[in-house]
Amino acid sequence: MEKYLYTVGEVAGILGENTSLVRFWANEFPKFIKPQRNAKGNRLFTKEDVETFKHIHMLVKVEGMTLEGVAKRLKGDRKDVINKAKVLESLRAIRNQLAEIREDL
């Protein structure tokens, strides 16, 4: 069963970053990330928000872009960003599989 909403901690785990960075990015990019709030006031992110976080993560951490550059890239054509994020995610999965194989040997 697929999840519809993710907590800050879950998003941080997906990205491999800390929760404060996830909150910071959510505050920096309100046009692109629109969290919902639960009864306690905690942020809950949709699957689309998580994909946007992955794009931001790739642009900042992998390509070394500034936050202004990321905002401009997100406003424009996102196909290139989406493709690079998918490749990065695939490479991480392959690395994890290789690490598991090495442990089994």
Rg, please?
A: 15 Å
Query: Separation of termini?
Result: 33 Å
Shape descriptor reads globular
Which percent band covers the strand fraction?
5-15%
Report the total helices.
5
Largest beta-sheet characterization? 3 strands, antiparallel
* Count of distinct strands: 3
Second rung of CATH, namely the architecture: Orthogonal Bundle
> What is the number of domains?
1
CATH class: Mainly Alpha
Quick structural gist:
This protein is mainly alpha-helical.
Overview of this structure, please?
By secondary structure, the protein is mainly alpha-helical. It has a single domain, classed as Multidrug-efflux Transporter Regulator, Chain: A, Domain 2, CATH 1.10.1660. Helix content is 66%, strand content 9%. The protein contains five helices and three strands; from the N terminus they run E-H-H-E-E-H-H-H. The protein has helices at 8-15, 19-28, 47-62, 67-75, 79-104, and strands at residues 5-7, 36-37, 43-46. Strands 1-3-2 form a three-stranded antiparallel β-sheet. Strand 2 (36-37) and strand 3 (43-46) form a beta hairpin. Helix 1 (8-15) crosses helix 2 (19-28) and helix 3 (47-62) crosses helix 5. The mean pLDDT is 88.
